Amino acid sequence: MRWDHLAENPAPARDAALFGADAVTTRTFDSPEFRGITFHEIRAKSIVNRVPGASRMPFEWTVNPYRGCTHACVYCFARKTHSYLDLDTGLDFDSQIVVKVNAPELLRRRLASPRWYGEHIAMGTNVDCYQRAEGRYRLMPGIIAALRDHANPFSILTKGTLILRDLDLLKQASEVTEVGISVSVGFTDPELWRTVEPGTPAPERRLDVVRTLTDHGIGCGVLMAPVLPFLSDHPDRLRATVRAIAASGATSVTPLVLHLRPGAREWFMAWLERNHPHLVRRYERLYAEGAYAPKWYQRRITGQVHELAQEYGMGPTRAGLPRRIPAPEPEAPGLPVPGLPAPGLAAPESTATATATQLTLL
Ligand code: SF4
Q1: What is the CATH architecture assignment of 49-63+102-345?
Q2: Which residues form ligand 1's pocket by a CB distance below 6 Å?
Q3: How close is the Cα of 142 to the center of ligand 1, in Å?
Q4: Fewer beta carbons below 10 Å: N end or C end of the chain?
C-alpha cells in the first residue's frame, strides 16, 4: 500500500510490514455492524486538500476523514482512489477503511493558520463522512466544532442518517457561517436500493434526515444521484422519487446520471451481469464513448426531473427555506420491468442543461 502521503511515517508494506507499525494501527471489531470490516487508523500529515485546478468540481477545498466506504454502493466512483493505496477497488473499498484519527486537530490547526483565508470546505465529496465508521470514531463533531469556532463556511454531502447526531453542532455552525447540507437519494425503489447500495440507510430514512434538518431550520437539498439508466429512469420512477424528495421538504433537487469511471465501471458491470444480465449490452452501448452517458440522455433526465420538481413545488427557492408539500401517494402500479423496452432511450424531449456537478454520488 502507498500510505506515505497519508501517514506521518512512511509505510513500506501492507499490514505491519506494509504500513509501518508505528504509522498505522489496524483494528477489527466484533459488533455485527463492523463484521468483516478492517479499520486502518493513521495520523495524517494534512487534512485540507486542494481540488486540482482542472477539476470540474464546484469547490476548491475538501476534507475527507475516511478512505473507503462501508456504504458499499456498487457504482461509487471513489473506488478508484483505493487503488492508490494498492487496495482493490471492489471488496477492499467496502471493507478496508482508512481512518484519519487526527482529522479534527489537523483541521483546527489549519483554520488557525494565518495562511488560511476562510474559504469554503466541502465534505463527503470523496467518500461518505457519515458512513458507519463515524459512529465509532466520532471525527465529525470535532471537525464541525472547528469550522464553527472559526466561522468557516462548509458543506456536507451524505447518505448517512448519522448526521442527525450532530444536529446541535450544525445548528450552532449555521448561526455563524454558511452551512450547506445535501443528502443523496437517487431513487426510492427498495429492491434496487438493497442490491445497489447495500450498506446505506434506506432512501426513506435519508429523506427523514432532510425532513428533520429542515424542521430545525437547516435547509437541505437532495442530490438525486445516480439516476440509473433502464433501472430508475422510467418516468413513473422519476416521478415517485421527485415526489418523495419534495415531500421531505428539500430545498432543491439536483439530478445526476450514473457515470462509470475505471474502478467503478468494472465493479458495476459485474454487478449488472449478476443481477440484470439482459441490460449488459444496453449499458455497453450507452457508455460506449467512455465514463458518461450521452449528453442527450443526460439532458433528457435533467429536463424531466426539473419539470417534476416544478410540478411538486420545488421551483427555484432560496437555500434555507424548507418547503413542505403533502406526503406522496403510494407508488403507481405497473412500473416497468428492467429489460423491457427502454423507457429512458426515447428521443430527447428537453433542452434543459445537464448538471456539471461531479460528485462521488453519495
Ligand atoms: S457513493 Fe458515497 S455512500 Fe456510496 S460507497 Fe461511495 S462514498 Fe460511500
Answers
A1: Alpha-Beta Horseshoe (3.80)
A2: 69, 71-73, 76, 78, 127-128, 131, 159, 200, 360-362
A3: 22
A4: N
